[in-house]
Amino acid sequence: MFPMYGFFDPTYILIIIGVIITLAASAKMNSAFRRYSKVRSHSGLTGAQAAAKILNYAGIYDVVVERVSGNLTDHYDPRSKVLRLSDATYNATSVAAIGVAAHECGHAMQDKEAYAPLKLRGSLVPVANIGSNLSWIFIILGIIMGANQTLLNIGILLFSLAVIFQLVTLPVEFNASSRALRVLKDSAMMYEDEVEDTRKVLSAAALTYVASAAAAILSLLRLVILFGGGRDD
């Protein structure tokens, strides 16, 4: 059940690959944001002002735009109808800032239209959090109790819930970016070349979600390889 070669567990290669993918995607995202955060939008709008205009353009009047501390901590909270923009976005007038603000507005548009993947992701949040936290407890207990396959299987199943959440997140994020680019172009808030620059920023951001999903899948695969094929003694 536990394939080892000396003191080296070969399945760690899967974890290492996941870490490399995640770090590479994060580096690309940070690079793209830094580059286009230096490109001022011709409109002169800040991220907050752009968000307000986009929401109004989309006919959304019950969402509040707030500032939140941190770097790239931007997010939309469908429960409280609040769109929070980070320090790097709220007052910035760059193409990158407006692009990120528009992306979060994309989530607000999804919420207004009851976009199914967004609703599914929202329903999976507590399940994924519980699964992610409890999975290791069951796996550790399973190991302690002499490789109890029932406990190990429960742990793997719980961890898979977090993986499913990561997968459901992908269409939600891709769709939000697509909406953002479309509204920026249709509203004439950005020139064509600015929209293309924004596309590069949002594409880099999308890669971080793909990388997170890939890393989660690799971690699940490792658990299956280590603990999924055994049997109770």
Automatic annotation (TrEMBL):
Signal peptide: none
InterPro entries noted in UniProt: Zn_peptidase_2
Keywords associated with the record: Membrane, Transmembrane, Transmembrane helix
Residues annotated as transmembrane: 12-33, 124-145, 151-172, 206-227
The keyword Transmembrane belongs to this UniProt entry's keyword annotation: yes
Keyword Cytoplasm in record: no
One matching Pfam family: Zn_peptidase_2
Origin superkingdom: Bacteria
Protein name per the record: Neutral zinc metallopeptidase
Organism encoding this protein: Anaerostipes caccae (strain DSM 14662 / CCUG 47493 / JCM 13470 / NCIMB 13811 / L1-92)
